[in-house]
Amino acid sequence: MSATAFRQVTQDRSLYVPAGLFLVLLCAVAFRGQGLFTNNGLAGAILVATPLILTALAITPIVMAGRGAVDLSVGPLMGFVNVTLITWLVGNGITHPVAIIAWAVGLGAAFQLVQALVIIYVRVAPIIVTLSGFLVLSGVNLMVMSRPGGVAPDWMLSWGAGTSVFSPVLLLLLGAFAIWGVLRGTMFYRNLRMTGADERMAYTSGVQVDVVRIIAHMVGGVFAGLAALSYTALISSGDPTQGSTYTLQAVTALVLGGASLSGGRGGALGSTLGAINMFLISYLLSTFNFGTVSGFVTQMAFGLILVGSLLVNVFVISRRTVA
Amino acid sequence: MRRSLTGTMGALIAVSALTTTAWADGVDQLPANEKKIYEVVDPQVPLGASAYKDFKPKKGPPWKIGYASSYAGNTWRAAALDAVMNDLLPRSKEAGLVSEVVVTQSDLKDAVQIQQMRQMVDDGVDAIIICCSNVTALNQTIEYAYKAGVPVFSFSGYVTSPYAINGAANHAQGGGEMATWLAEKIGKKGNVLLVSGIPGFASSDSFDKAAKEALAKYPDINIVGEVAGKWTDQVAQVEVQKFLATNPTQIDGILTQGAQENGVLNAMLQSGRDMVPITLGGEASAACYWRQNPEWIDAGFHIWPPRREMQQMWEIMLRTLQGQGPKVQSFLRPVLPFTIDDVRAAIPEDCDLNSTDFVEPKADGWFPSAIADQYFERPADPWKPVAQ
């Protein structure tokens, strides 16, 4: 798998910047201390970064399908799965792992199916549909659970301990990569890229663009379900409001990973690198002690790194188009 | 299915049995006048015995402290941080108790706060202070810290983890008292606007819950609206302005949480309506308006004085690290009313209506050491310098 990833990085120019930034950040973190490179440090990193990686993955197929389809609803959707899981399932004594996982994945896919149908058949711009999804779910989440509380099922409690690298959370992540790996080999993936690059041309070439869009959304929904599972493991409880903060982070990770918001370009590797980079930036900044001005310095530094790498990214990618 | 139900029931019974015994162990050990503070309390606040009764730190003093703050964007947080960096830390350094304070900010993102706390633990801090966070999300991380010998102290808000020590005013009691004061002040009848803090946050929810319960006792009082001020004057001002502009209803009083009342006051002043009683939580700006209009109201409430709450937690932390053995998981303080005379003593006649400071209880007025001693198994003066 790492060999394929390596080949991808060397071949795809849009991955140069995220991969480069990743290496730079890794060196910087190593230089600042050894904390990350211990068993506990890595275990914690996987635990904390997985929900972000998976939400970034969840919006990747949808944005690849074009029409500027940035799925803003992904954060609250993850929150929705989280609170319903805790309130409706665990609250009613349903704690069997199969039921929990099926609920999370199924609910994510079902919600995305609805969004896809509205986008295709009601013909509203995707950004409006997903923004509505964001607002509706943000409210619904507070209705399902008015304040943070509840407990994750017993078997999930140990997931959030973050003391072992080979935890179930890592399995969730690998599972998502495996799904993506299988998809890459299918006709759907090629059609998805075609649809995103030029929907009209794809249609005239006989691609069923509507079906492609529906599948893209449902795959995204499955990833959002997995993200919700890892998030539930992270906080071991339910939280109606935190999910929303993930939307912006996931979109940032996506763009940082070299995906194009206008569609056609993007992939799991880029989004993953983008999400890991965001984690590393945050980790790196936390190793400094800025004292009383810490709040402002952290946010400013975070923003500057993002803007800087995006600028470089645009430069590298646009040179490719010229050549 | 049935089996899992029985299992859950069993677990529930076991847990409830545990809490009863734990309660007997924790709060019941306190003297009667302190126990009173725990009578009206948010049911989620953990009242068991502390896990740190026999705690000994890994090393030190001097200790290295981590402050994993979750937000930096309002005057209250700034005052709390200022209390650490410019008062408590220098004094502790001088006494040889603390060597360094590491501060991080997570901008209200739980996942980032979790990462920062774990980083602090891995980095070898001796104790972590957090503030008014999500009540459940950090529990696994707090346990992680506990297992590494690092106690976690939550000030101005609780977390439900048995491995944390909480210190705050009894926000439920505060919400109840402030609501009752307002209800009496407006003559037990009329329309009240409720300005909440950040819904979903511990202290904010405790306050609202008890405030609503207290107002429900007055049948002629209606809560005509509820907005969230985010504990930030500017946000509260915009939210209240929006409400007043779109709701022509008569408002007879505004019940707002602390640290945002000046925004509420400004919104009322700009609306052109007649001034109504507003609950004050200690902002020097709104207190200044009161000083200039002494007839406006007759009481304010220290509900979460930032510097004093931080000082309370700091002293609890020092005592715990010194092995004094805290008796309870949650140190609750009663909400202290203050009068116009207190305001006159605290701020000058030509005070600043836009001040970002707070009127706070006297240094030893919030958590006096004589009372603090009763909360510990082996009490001693926490500030006693260490022989170097």
From TrEMBL, chain A:
The chain crosses the membrane at residues 15-35, 41-65, 77-94, 100-120, 127-145, 165-183, 211-234, 246-264, 271-290, 296-317. It is found in: Cell membrane. InterPro entries: ABC_transp_permease. It comes from the Bacteria. Keywords: Cell membrane, Membrane, Transmembrane, Transmembrane helix. It is a multi-pass membrane protein. CDD domains: TM_PBP1_transp_AraH_like. One of its GO terms (cellular component) is plasma membrane. GO terms for molecular function: transmembrane transporter activity. The keyword Membrane applies. PANTHER family: ABC TRANSPORTER PERMEASE PROTEIN YPHD-RELATED-RELATED (PTHR32196). This is Monosaccharide ABC transporter membrane protein, CUT2 family. It comes from Rhizobium lusitanum.
From TrEMBL, chain B:
It comes from the Bacteria. InterPro entries: Peripla_BP_I, SBP_2_dom. CDD domains: PBP1_ABC_sugar_binding-like. Its main location: other. Keywords: Signal. GO terms for cellular component: cell envelope. It is found in: Cell envelope. Residues 65-324 form the Periplasmic binding protein domain. Residues 1-24 form the signal peptide. GO terms for molecular function: carbohydrate binding. Belongs to the bacterial solute-binding protein 2 family. This is Ribose transport system substrate-binding protein.
